[in-house]
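Troubleshooting: if your tokenizer reports a length mismatch, compare your output against this known-good record of 22 residues.
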Amino acid sequence: MSQMSQAAQNLNWLITNFVDNT
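Known-good structure output:
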């Protein structure tokens, strides 16, 4: 579960970074 949570957080960070850059 910890690994899944970390993956979700990483994805969320990537999306946020992408949207912030756009």
